[in-house]
Amino acid sequence: MKALLIIDIQNDYFPGGASELVNPDLALDNTVKILKAFRESNLPVIHVQHNNIGEGDTFMVPGTDGVKIHERLALKEGEYLVTKTAPSAFYKTDLLDIIRANNITELVVCGMMTHMCIDTTVRCAMDHELPITLISDACATKALTYKDQVIPAEQVHASFLAALSGTFAELKTASAYLLDA
Questions:
Q1: What is the pLDDT of residues 6-55, one digit of tens each?
Q2: Which of 12, 14, 84, 91 has the most beta carbons within 10 angstroms of its beta carbon?
Q3: How does DSSP classify residue 45?
């Protein structure tokens, strides 16, 4: 059985948030479409919420509005919430227990940030022999800096998707996934 894994689509990544990404609304819109299809098919939905608990952390801080999952993705009865403090949704969480208890054999992944928690979680899923379909236009990231060079968000996003494609995940757009579903 497949399940939808929605990673870190939280308020701090949107305009006015403490760590705004590039095009988060597009990723959100496409995630909402995928979520609707999973709910209509009565397939499992797992929401992942990042909590930064380090001293001096400035975003995803517990107790703030920024840490909350975006209201358009509000959990419904029967859906799961996994709270994490590291990039991988598997690390020191109950995600694998939820997957095993529900006989989940495949994950469809949407979320934020492509270069961090999406990349890490997708790679870790391979260790658990879980095939992944990554919805490429239901993810968002930001520009990064390396050796005084700013790498635009679009390039970061494309590079990480290219690295995951094939070995770690099958990439599909939301519309292509919904056509095949």
A1: 999 999 999 999 999 999 999 999 999 999 999 999 999 999 999 998 88
A2: 12
A3: E
Per the structure, the count of domains in the chain is 1
d(C-alpha 11, C-alpha 127), whole Å? 30
pTM value > 0.90: yes
CA dihedral sign of residues 14, 19, 20, 21: negative
CA nearest to 73, candidates 122, 11, 118? 11
> Where residue 8 sits, what CATH number does that domain have?
3.40.50.850
Q: Which domain holds residue 9?
A: 2-180
The letter for the amino acid at 82 is V
Considering only CA atoms, which of 17, 8, 141 is closest in space to residue 84? 8
Sign of the four-CA dihedral 130, 131, 137, 141: positive
Q: Tokens 């969480």, residue?
A: 93
Write the single-letter amino acid at 131: P
| Predicted pLDDT at 55 | 86
State what percent of residues in the chain have pLDDT above 70: 100
The half-sphere exposure of 153 on its side-chain side, counting CA atoms within 13 A, is 13
* pLDDT over threshold 90, residue 1: yes
SS3 state at 178: helix
Strand ranges of the sheet holding 2-7, from the earlier edge strand across to the other edge: 80-84, 45-50, 2-7, 106-112, 132-140, 170-172
